[in-house]
Design goal:
The complex is a heterodimer of chains A (340) and B (230).
Chain A (H helix, E strand, L loop, with lengths): L3 E12 L6 E12 L3 E5 L6 H8 L7 E6 L2 E2 L5 H8 L2 E5 L10 H11 L4 H15 L14 H13 L5 E5 L7 H18 L2 E6 L2 H7 L2 E6 L2 E7 H6 L4 H8 L7 H9 L3 E8 L7 H9 L2 E11 L4 E10 L3 H10 L3 E6 L2
Parallel strand pairs in A: 3-8, 3-9, 6-7, 7-8
Antiparallel strand pairs in A: 1-2, 1-4, 4-5, 9-10, 11-13, 11-14, 12-13
Helix pairs in contact in A: 3-4, 3-5, 4-5, 5-6, 11-12
Chain B lengths: L1 H8 L2 H42 L9 H16 L2 H7 L1 H8 L5 H25 L3 H9 L4 H40 L2 H10 L4 H29 L3
The chains are: A alpha/beta (340), B mainly alpha (230).
């Protein structure tokens, strides 16, 4: 796992010149492990698309290096770069299929580019159609497919030449929630079964949460936060990270909060992680320290590799300090929102 | 007068005469249109592709080539065809050895059509979704592969429409070439319809040209629709 599929070092990218110069990416450093699903999240204009295009050099960075499997692709010839690109599949928001070619021809396209013999193409495309569940759509044109089916063709095309890395550029942003889920499941399955490294670019936290192991957050061309997905969720260090999770974390209903503020006791936010989430530590706390606990808000998030529960409680009683310490001892993250 | 016309319409000799006058010129027209379309589409397509890919932010951006070619195309398109025809007489004489007749007319027709085809192909390619091209680049395709396997097939329906318009334009121009001794149906119109006041022959010639245009437009529409899978 320690081997790196992609290493980006001190990468800068700008567009335009003089007064119109826009710095799209500033000092980007990312290391992506082989076999993981790595998320890059940011609002539109944050530089995600530029970043992903710098990984296969569709955009040439101003400075810095991009190492694919240890090889710096900013320093190789164009023909070598084309060979490298065949090792990096790409999936697009708007699918970018050949509209005048059938599903079969679309998937066969990258295979033809590497001069695969016809019989082998035939066999490989049938396999791929099987993987993405479109065997019955072999000779259909993309216009006759739904968005989700088009993206499946895009995925089949991206993995046709058995690349080590696939990049998904807002791959689900044009799809409805249900289709999004099925596409994400497919990407995850491909990641597991084919051991391919996946880079996911998105503005949707849901996507990151559903499939990513680790994530980098971009804001105005800079990395504001990087790390394991649950770590960032539980302890976001920056406002940007908090902003992203706000959409997921149900906001505390203001009326409930105002009312609770007037009542005695402390208001705390307790975050439970992983397996421990099923332990009855709240009820233990109540019994042990003789405090009252009113639940103002509760929710559970399922992440790629664990469950995260959040409770907002109003605790009242003589031993609230001890009660809060007890929670902390039990590996619960506590944030005091209002001191009693 | 009316009686005279209806009498002659019943006369087989009349029709035989018309047939003798018009048929060779239909063939001449088709001959001119076919070869000048063929050559101008080949050369014009190459020029159109170059105009397209040398655009800013395209496959092979090259501002000098793009603007030089653009200027040449614009000049070619702004010279009136009648003037162009006379201007390329020396060229026609150099290439085919004469400046009169159908073969000689192919030269000005081709020269006039090339810049037109170039712009038409360019604008067909402009309609392409840039995303597909980006996807091909990301798959490691080289320029030649992108042009032949992505750009041209994807733009095919629009290119067919462009070629249809070109051929129809060339039919019109070929009639003009006929007026200065280029042969073809335009020549018939001038020699018989105008100079000998044979309005009947003029009408037949025009009707035949209308039919030609209709047939080509229909074939063009049919092919374009067949190729379009969007």
């Amino acid at each position: 796992m320690s081997e790196k599929a992609v290493v980006i070092k001190n990468l800068y990218k700008s567009y335009g010149e003089g007064a119109n110069k826009v710095e799209a990416l500033k000092d980007i450093n990312i290391e992506i492990n082989k076999g993981e699903i790595y998320g890059i999240i940011g609002l539109s204009g944050a530089g995600k698309s530029s970043l992903v295009r710098c990984i296969n050099l569709l955009e040439v960075p101003d400075s810095g290096s991009v190492l694919i499997n240890g090889k710096d692709i900013t320093k190789i010839s164009l023909s070598e770069l084309r060979k490298e690109r065949k090792n990096i599949g790409m999936i697009f928001q708007h699918f970018n299929l050949l509209m005048n070619s059938t599903v079969y021809e679309n998937i066969a396209f990258p295979l033809k580019l590497v001069k695969t013999p016809k019989a082998e193409i035939e066999k490989r495309v049938s396999e791929l159609l099987e993987i993405v569940g479109l065997s019955d759509k072999r000779d259909v044109y993309p216009a006759q497919l739904s968005g989700g089916q088009k993206q499946r063709v895009g995925i089949a095309r991206a993995i046709a030449t058995k690349p080590d890395i696939i990049m998904c550029d807002e791959a689900t942003s044009a799809l409805d929630p249900e289709t999004t889920k099925s596409i994400l499941d497919l990407i995850k399955e491909i990641n597991r079964t084919l051991k391919v490294t996946v880079i996911v670019i998105t503005h949707e936290m849901e996507v990151i949460k559903a499939i990513c192991d680790r994530v980098t957050m971009l804001e105005e061309g800079r990395i504001v936060e990087s790390g394991g997905i649950t770590d960032i969720y539980i302890e976001p260090k920056t406002d940007t990270a908090k902003k992203f999770f706000k959409a997921i974390d149900t906001e505390l209903d203001n009326r409930v909060y105002q009312k609770a503020l007037k009542e005695p006791g402390r208001i705390i936010k307790a975050v439970f992680r992983g397996e421990g989430s099923t332990d009855p530590c709240i009820s233990n706390m109540i019994k042990k320290y003789d405090v009252d606990a009113a639940i103002l808000l509760g929710n559970i998030q399922s992440m790629e590799n664990m469950l995260v529960g959040t409770l907002v409680l109003r605790i009242n009683g003589a031993n609230t300090d001890e009660a809060i310490n007890y929670l902390k001892e039990n590996d619960v993250l506590v944030e005091v929102l209002k001191n009693g | 007068m009316g009686e005279f016309i209806s009498e002659s319409l019943k006369n087989p000799e009349y029709w035989e005469n018309i047939y003798k006058i018009i048929t060779p010129e239909i063939i001449n027209t088709l001959y001119m249109v076919f070869f000048s379309s063929l050559i101008s589409v080949i050369i014009g397509s190459v020029a159109g592709v170059v105009l397209y890919i040398t655009q800013k932010d395209n496959l092979m951006p090259n501002a000098p080539i793009n603007s030089i070619m653009g200027t040449i195309v614009n000049i070619g398109r702004s010279v009136p065809f009648v003037i162009l025809m006379i201007a390329v007489f020396p060229l026609a004489r150099f290439i085919v050895g004469t400046s009169i007749g159908s073969t000689a007319s192919i030269v000005p027709l081709t020269v006039a059509a090339i810049p037109f085809v170039a712009r038409m192909i360019e604008s067909s390619l402009n309609e392409l979704d840039k995303g597909v091209i980006e996807a091909s680049v990301s798959m490691g395709a080289n320029e030649a592969e992108i042009i032949t396997k992505v750009m041209l097939p994807e733009a095919a329906p629009s290119i067919v429409s462009s070629i249809t318009i070109t051929i129809i334009n060339i039919i019109g121009y070929s009639a003009m070439a006929g007026t200065i001794g280029g042969g073809g149906l335009g020549d018939v119109c001038i020699r018989y319809g105008y100079q000998r006041s044979r309005t009947d022959i003029l009408i037949y010639s025009v009707v035949i040209m209308i039919v030609m245009v209709q047939i080509i437009q229909c074939i063009g529409n049919f092919l374009s629709r067949r190729l379009d899978k969007r």
